[in-house]
Automatic annotation (TrEMBL):
Lineage, broadest ranks: Bacteria, Pseudomonadati, Pseudomonadota, Betaproteobacteria, Neisseriales
Keyword check for Isomerase: yes
EC number: 5.1.3.2
Family annotation (CDD domains): UDP_G4E_1_SDR_e
Species this protein is from: Parachitinimonas caeni
Name of protein: UDP-glucose 4-epimerase
Coiled-coil zones: none
Record keywords, A-Z: Carbohydrate metabolism, Galactose metabolism, Isomerase, NAD
This protein's record includes keyword Transmembrane helix: no
Cofactor(s) demanded: NAD(+)
Length: 338
């Protein structure tokens, strides 16, 4: 019989791609999502790509009664906890909403897991927990000093998970610190579908290329980087999805608490991404330089030694493939999942 995994936030960008990977590796999945930043149509597309049905529930993780009912109906071997609010800007404007959602949802989920003796979890954390003070490349032991509300909400959940394992060693937890996920499934059926003006570089470039936005603003071109623009570690979302599967498998073979960076292990500048995207799409991406944004860092990328050694994981897809796949999704679905 197949093992069953609960994917929270499974209708979102990373959740949908991770569901494909789990289904391809013969897991059964159950998705719970409140669709606050996604649409049910994304799940129909996942079913189409995988050629398999699965159960999904529209529910908010903070609704303890609804979550209890879901756990009572299924026997999960583990949980991939991807649900969360991810907008850095919105979190700065409304910190209470970010903390309330990201912390309360995690606590409610963990309590329910505990009641049902489901003690294996993979948690979606973020490289934003490192903040400015860490030396590049970021290692898992680098000091944590997030300089955003969002980053602090992730660090708080990480702390909670550490304390949980400290108090009860039967918990098995993998904390995955994603760097900058981009790209889309090669079918062009699923991808990142931002609500309003995108906050991340790749979906912004996509919307400029498809004519929904006039130009890209590049914040800062006087950083100490090869071309002066900011350097980030972009990682293909399907590579990331595979990292989740490997983390889940690792937890069943070797329990405990594991914190792992998931990045490509190298940086690309904004201008490199623009050029690669133009080559991939055949479209011009007009851009203008704008002043640096407060809090932005010139350059960061991951040290992926631990992911390689412990998970036997390494990002396989390069920048051109990330751009080709992003463009396929955007050009085939200019308005997302409508
Ligand atoms: N995409 C990135 O750049 C990035 C980088 C680092 C970490 N992360 C983290 O990875 C996770 C997934 O990110 P994503 O890009 O797929 O985001 P997303 O917004 O596309 O997906 C998150 C999903 O969670 C759902 N959700 C939010 N709060 C919920 C709640 N209380 N109950 C039930 N469902 C809820 C949303 O509706 C959405 O479908 C998030 O936790 C995010 O913070 C994302």
């Amino acid at each position: 019989m197949r093992q069953q995994v609960l994917v929270t936030g499974g209708a979102g960008y990373i959740g949908t791609h991770t569901c494909i990977e789990l289904l391809a590796n013969d897991y059964d999945i159950v998705v719970v999502d409140n669709f606050s930043n996604s649409k049910p149509a994304a799940l129909s597309r996942v079913q189409k790509i995988a050629g398999r049905d699965f159960v999904w529930y529209e529910a908010d993780l903070r609704d303890r009664i609804a979550i209890e009912r879901i756990f009572a109906k299924h026997k999960f071997c583990g949980v991939l906890h991807c649900a969360g609010l991810k907008s850095i800007d919105r979190a700065e404007r409304d910190p209470l909403r970010c903390y309330e959602n990201n912390l309360e949802a995690s606590i409610s989920l963990i309590e329910t897991m505990q009641r049902h003796d489901v003690k294996r979890m993979v948690f979606s954390s973020s490289a934003t927990v490192y903040g400015e003070s860490a030396r590049v490349p970021y290692r898992e032991e680098s000091p944590l000093a997030p300089n955003t509300v969002y980053g602090r909400s992730k660090m708080m959940v990480e702390t909670l998970l550490h304390d949980l394992v400290h108090a009860d060693e039967s918990w098995n937890i993998a904390i995955l610190r994603y760097f900058n996920p981009v790209g889309a499934h090669s079918s062009g059926l699923i991808g990142e579908d931002p609500d309003g003006v995108p906050g991340n570089l790749m979906p912004y470039i996509c919307q400029v290329a498809v004519g929904k936005l006039n130009h890209l603003s590049i914040f800062g071109h006087d950083y100490p980087t090869p071309d002066g623009t900011g350097v980030r570690d972009y990682v293909h979302v399907m590579d990331l999805a595979q990292g989740h599967f490997k983390a889940l498998r690792q937890l069943s073979e070797s329990p405990g608490l594991l914190t792992v960076n998931l990045g490509a292990g190298r940086g690309y500048s904004v201008l490199e991404v623009v050029r690669a995207f133009e080559a991939a799409s055949g479209r011009k991406v007009p851009y203008r330089f704008a002043p640096r944004r407060p809090g932005d860092i010139g350059s960061y990328y991951a040290d992926v030694t631990r992911a390689t050694e412990v998970l036997n994981w390494r990002a396989q897809r390069g920048l051109l493939e990330m751009c080709v796949d992003s463009w396929r999704w955007q050009s085939q679905n200019p308005d997302g999942y409508v």
